[in-house]
Write a structure and sequence with these properties.
Helix content: 25-40%
Number of strands: 15
Strand content: 25-35%
Bound molecules: pyridoxal-5'-phosphate
Distance between the termini: 28 Å
CATH class of the largest domain: Alpha Beta
CATH superfamily of the largest domain: D-amino Acid Aminotransferase, subunit A, domain 2
Shape: globular
CATH architecture of the largest domain: Alpha-Beta Barrel
Structural class: alpha+beta
Length: 316
């Protein structure tokens, strides 16, 4: 049966900050009312997976790819999503439609849940699903987008893939948070972490690319297979560039012609300073600009855009 997007009238304040709508326990509610139990192992053990997709100018971007990655994480964690894939889609559309956002950040989450007797055996917990839509947000603010981010290469090692499979998008963020503080301590705006071989991995919520002589290189080992990363690789291929996934040393990063980071939260974001030195001449480069233009143009491309089923205006 299709999910009907109706906000539960019991909740009085749909405009509490941030303005947005969540779906939980079979109903749509203001996001400020969405809750998770302290007994949920998603909270106690970070035993959860999630995905984030954005809506741009009224359409989801690559929703199928985000749902596929999310369902892959659920399966790898041996969870059972308590809603069907069809309902999941309806719920995501419903959250955005009820919030009215034309540009939105939409998150779907599956947690382990809790067991009736507080058993540590994960098989005994009933898995939980929730989703929400809030206004679109970006890793980089408007000024950083214009002049490029200032990034610190930290000495923090990203949690290795032998410990947590990065194909499962997860909330194991203490390494990323530690990296952020290290970056702030050095006057930088965000951080890059290393992989277990000492090469560049990724940062808090983004992948990274180096551009050298027009070719694109992005780390492969121990990073989330970002959907924005995939999109940029495809754009690079369409533009006839050499694109490569592989080891990226700090030296190669610092010697690149251009550097940018990629995320659903911000798209393609230029980096113009690494540690205490500018990238090339410290300005946003032409390859970054060209890829950024195509990335946003693809948001209107029916191959990737899925219009949100907004609610019809109520009859007079
Ligand atoms: N790496 C990490 C650790 C992330 O959390 C994210 C996004 O949240 C990304 C990379 C970028 O992935 P995507 O482009 O799918 O947003």
């Amino acid at each position: 049966m299709p999910i009907t997007p109706v906000l539960n009238p019991r909740y009085r304040d749909p405009h509490a900050y941030p303005h947005g709508v969540a779906w939980q326990d079979g109903q749509f509610i203001p996001v400020s009312e969405a809750k998770i139990s302290v007994l949920d192992y998603g909270f106690l053990h970070s035993d959860a997976t999630y995905d984030t997709v954005h809506v741009w100018d009224g359409a989801f971007f690559r929703l199928d790819a985000h749902i596929e990655r999310f369902l892959g994480g659920v399966e790898r964690l041996r969870m059972t999503l308590p809603v069907s894939t069809e309902d999941l889609r309806d719920i995501l559309h419903g959250c955005v439609a009820l919030s009215g956002h034309r540009r939105s950040y939409v998150e779907m989450i599956c947690t382990r849940g809790w067991s009736p007797d507080f058993s540590r055996d994960p098989r005994k917990s009933g898995n939980r699903f929730l989703a929400f839509a809030v206004p679109y947000g970006s890793v980089a603010n408007a000024e950083q987008m214009r002049r490029g981010l200032h990034v610190r290469v930290t000495d923090v090692t990203r949690i290795p893939p032998g410990s947590v499979n990065p194909a499962i998008k997860n909330y194991h963020w203490l390494d990323l948070i530690g990296g952020l503080y290290q970056a702030y301590d050095h006057g930088a705006e965000t951080a890059l972490l290393l992989d277990s071989d000492g090469n560049i991995a990724e940062g808090p919520g983004f992948n990274v690319f180096a551009v050298k002589d027009g070719a694109l290189l992005t780390p492969e080992h121990g990073v989330l297979a970002g959907i924005t990363r995939r999109t940029v690789l495809e754009i690079g291929q369409e533009e006839g560039r050499e694109v490569r996934e592989g080891a990226l040393s700090k030296e190669a990063l610092c010697a690149a012609d251009e550097v940018f980071v990629t995320s659903t939260a911000g798209g393609v974001m230029p980096v113009t300073r690494i540690d205490d030195a500018p990238v090339r001449d410290g300005t946003v480069g032409p390859v970054t600009e060209a890829i950024t233009r195509t990335y946003w143009a693809w948001h209107a491309d029916s191959r990737y855009a899925e219009p949100v089923s907004y609610l019809a205006p109520a009859p007079e």
